[in-house]
TrEMBL record:
Family in the record: Belongs to the ABC transporter superfamily. Macrolide exporter (TC 3.A.1.122) family.
CDD domains to which the protein is assigned, alphabetical: ABC_MJ0796_LolCDE_FtsE (cd03255)
Protein name: ATP-binding cassette domain-containing protein
InterPro entries given in the database record: AAA+_ATPase, ABC3_permease_C, ABC_transporter-like_ATP-bd, ABC_transporter-like_CS, ABC_transpr_LolD-like, MacB-like_ATP-bd, P-loop_NTPase
Subcellular location: Cell inner membrane
Regions of compositional bias (Basic residues) in chain numbering: 13-24
Topology class, membrane: Multi-pass membrane protein
Keyword Transmembrane helix: yes
Domain ABC transporter: 35-272
Residue ranges crossing the lipid bilayer per the database entry: 560-587, 608-637, 649-669
Domain of life: Bacteria
Species whose genome carries this gene: Leucobacter triazinivorans
Length: 686
């Protein structure tokens, strides 16, 4: 029969609506009323036309089997959703088992729904990657039934629908008809007083439709009140009472069964779901298990989320570890020097310095150095003093005498004046220690130079250059060797180091002196340096202990740590954003599951909690993996750089905590969205 068949003779049916029920006698007048609707209307927000339901008044008694029929868009699903507390009426009073719905808060409505109703939808809304038994047990876990009792209840429910042998199959692998039977098993497992079925046979062939209808009939015989929407007249005829809805109103309400038969049925059994006896700890364990199981079932999605969190946390741990290792490396190097060295740096006021040192205004830097060195050596605890200064030499450096050979390459390397002591204290040495290093004594008179290795290469010299010379402007100087070890002066690689005898030639600036002391004295001696070298104006020379440099370096290192940490947090935020997006999309993909959970009584808070828990778990695991990855990367990088990795167990804590926190943060919005899903809309698949 077509849908419109229900409207044939509508007027006639309408006239006899109440009379017929009264005339034939109620199906079960003696039985208590379980549902009572009075003047119920439902207007959808944004819908401008007539309300989806308007002024509906009806009662349903315990043990009735009611079919709701009507044309498409008549308001049947709206009515069923209101009856099942998936939706709330705009006006009117609805009483379920003696309790007025408008007096209950949302959580109480959820509980009442869970304890009173079972749902079967046209689309079976199966969790396809769960087993048949897992699907049938859904309502039991949501109602906190003792896990030990569940297998028995599920087995009985599956047995009722003839699917016990398929309990272990994946719901996605059973047929459409079987899925609908699983949906019935899921609904009856929670021992509902009322079963609401929205087109339970709508997607089934005739044989399966008949089978499902028979099951509903059997359930009703066992005392369950059944209210079923159907378009199929033959299915509707299996009910005891048919209510036709048209344009949101009850058009007719007829008792169809032979009343003698109906009265002859045994009274409804009182079936109760075992009380919620699950302990809180068992509930938490079950929730965690469900979250893990969700991730393992959706392995690809979980793996992507995990990757995002792993990369984020791993980056953070590596970055913190590397920056701390780098800082420790620098600080360590300086520490060894800090024990017995400091620098004396002249102020950039050459005339004042010369006046103070009683030298002529045009005295070369080497004389300034000479006086300063002498005075410093007079201090107790000073072992040796080396000097260096930057040259301000504009003329070129040539290999041949420029006065004799005009056409030849002219170089302009950086020129540094340094004496033997300076080079020794800074760890700079020739490839092979050379006799001629004495030419770098501070009072040497013969011009001599040493080549940085890169400069030597440019000039075409090998390591050993005995007997060669070069011209600095018009002054010739002996090349006594090429630097082999650059020590703490890597910038000397391409420089020309000239001895103090050439200081005047290369217009050297006033020199910086490096003072080696007995261990532990630099800080104390540095205090008196100014007054020792220039008693008249101590500010002309300042002392820089390596400890100063060390704290400077520590400052730089901690800046570096902050910078890298910021970058890693940005990385972490980005990975959380991608995780949040994935979780957001999964909410939409799981709309049917959420609706189903809400329909079987799960609260909004519980749905929210489940999503957050799933996020925390994957974030936590990502944090653990990321921390491990970070440590491995730290060790590898440090090995490449020749550093000792600075490893701190707190890193692992940071990585794991970062993973867990970002897991929570990334799932907050999607979880709220999931909790706000309207179950009435979701069961329609809207
Ligand atoms: N969420 C909604 N927002 C706005 N209008 C809605 C909404 N849900 C249903 N409606 C409208 O309310 C009316 C009744 O819809 P309902 O789904 O209850 O009809 P139905 O009888 O169940 O139809 P069908 O047999 O096709 O499922 C229709 O006009 C429908 O378009």
């Amino acid at each position: 029969m077509s849908k419109s068949s229900w409207s044939q003779g509508a007027g006639r049916q309408s006239r006899r609506t109440r009379g017929s029920r009264r005339g034939r006698g109620s199906v079960s007048d003696e039985r208590p009323v379980i549902l009572r609707l009075a003047g119920i209307s439902r207007r959808y927000s944004g819908a401008e036309n007539a309300p989806a339901l308007s002024d509906v008044t009806l009662t349903v008694r315990e043990g009735e089997f009611v079919a709701i029929v009507g044309a498409s868009g008549a308001g049947k699903s709206t009515l069923l959703n209101l009856l099942g507390l998936l939706d709330t009426p705009s006006t009117g009073t609805y009483v379920v088992a003696g309790r007025r719905i408008d007096e209950l808060d949302e959580r109480a409505r959820d509980r009442l729904r869970a304890s009173t109703f079972g749902f079967v939808f046209q689309d079976s809304h199966m969790l396809l990657k769960e087993t048949v038994a897992g699907n049938a047990a859904l309502g039991l876990s949501i109602n906190d039934v003792d896990p030990a009792l569940r297998p028995g209840i599920v087995a009985a429910a599956l047995d009722t629908v003839g699917l016990l042998e398929k309990a272990g199959d994946l719901a996605g692998n059973v047929s459409g008809g079987e899925r609908q039977r699983v949906a019935i098993a899921r609904a009856i497992a929670t021992a509902p007083k009322i079963l609401l079925a929205d087109e339970p046979t709508g997607a089934l062939d005739t044989a399966n439709s008949t089978r499902v209808a028979r099951m509903l009939r059997d359930l009703n015989r066992d005392g369950v009140t059944v209210i079923m929407i159907t378009h199929d007249p033959s299915i509707a005829r299996t009910a005891d009472r048919v209510i036709e809805i048209s344009d949101g109103k009850v058009l007719s309400d007829e008792a169809t069964a032979d009343q003698a038969t109906v009265r002859g049925r045994r009274p409804p059994e009182t079936r109760e779901l075992p009380a919620a006896t699950q302990s809180s700890w068992s509930r938490v364990r079950e929730r965690i298990g469900a979250a893990i199981s969700h991730h393992t079932v959706h392995a690809a999605r979980a793996a992507l989320l995990l990757l995002a969190f792993t990369v984020g946390s791993g980056g953070l741990v590596t970055a913190i570890g590397l920056s701390q290792s780098a800082a420790a490396q620098v600080v360590g190097r300086l520490d060894s020097a800090a024990l017995d060295e400091f620098l004396v740096v002249p102020k950039n006021t050459p005339t004042a310095i010369r006046t103070e040192l009683a030298l002529p205004d045009d005295a070369p830097a080497s004389q300034v150095a000479e006086v300063a060195q002498q005075r410093l050596r007079g201090l107790d605890g000073v072992l040796s003093v080396g000097l260096t200064s930057i040259a301000e030499f504009d003329e070129g450096v040539t290999l041949l005498n420029p006065a004799m050979v005009a056409e030849q390459p002219v170089l302009s390397p950086q020129i540094r004046v340094a004496d033997r002591e300076y080079l020794r204290l800074r760890g700079v040495s020739l490839g092979t220690e050379h006799e001629s290093m004495r030419l770098f004594e501070r009072n040497a008179e013969a011009p001599a130079v040493i080549l940085g290795p890169a400069l030597a290469e440019r000039l075409g010299y090998a390591d050993q250059v005995p007997g060669s010379q070069l011209w600095i402007g018009s002054t010739s100087a002996a090349i006594i060797g090429v630097i082999g070890e650059l020590g703490e002066e890597p910038q000397l690689a391409s420089a020309l180091i000239v001895n103090p005898a050439l200081a005047a030639v290369v217009s050297a600036a006033d020199p910086t002196l490096i003072v080696q002391t007995e261990p532990g004295l630099p800080a104390g001696l540095a205090e008196v340096v100014g007054a020792t070298v220039a008693p008249g104006d101590p500010s002309l020379f300042t002392a820089e202990t390596v400890a100063d440099l060390r704290s400077l370096t520590q400052g730089v290192a901690s800046d570096l740590v902050s910078l890298i940490t910021i970058v890693s947090w940005v990385l972490l935020v980005l990975s959380s954003l991608s995780a949040a997006t994935a979780a957001y999309l999964s909410v939409h993909a799981r709309a049917a599951e959420i609706a189903l959970r809400r329909a079987v009584g799960e609260s909004k808070r519980s749905i929210w909690g489940q999503f957050v828990l799933e996020g925390v778990l994957v974030g936590l695991l990502g944090g653990v993996l990321g921390s491990a990855l970070g440590v491995v990367m730290l060790v590898v990088f440090a090995a490449q750089q020749g550093w000792t990795p600075t490893f701190n167990f707190a890193f692992l804590g940071v990585g794991v905590a970062a993973g867990a926190c970002t897991g929570i943060i990334a799932s907050l919005y999607p979880a709220a969205l999931a909790a706000q899903q309207d179950p009435a809309l979701a069961v329609r698949g809207t």
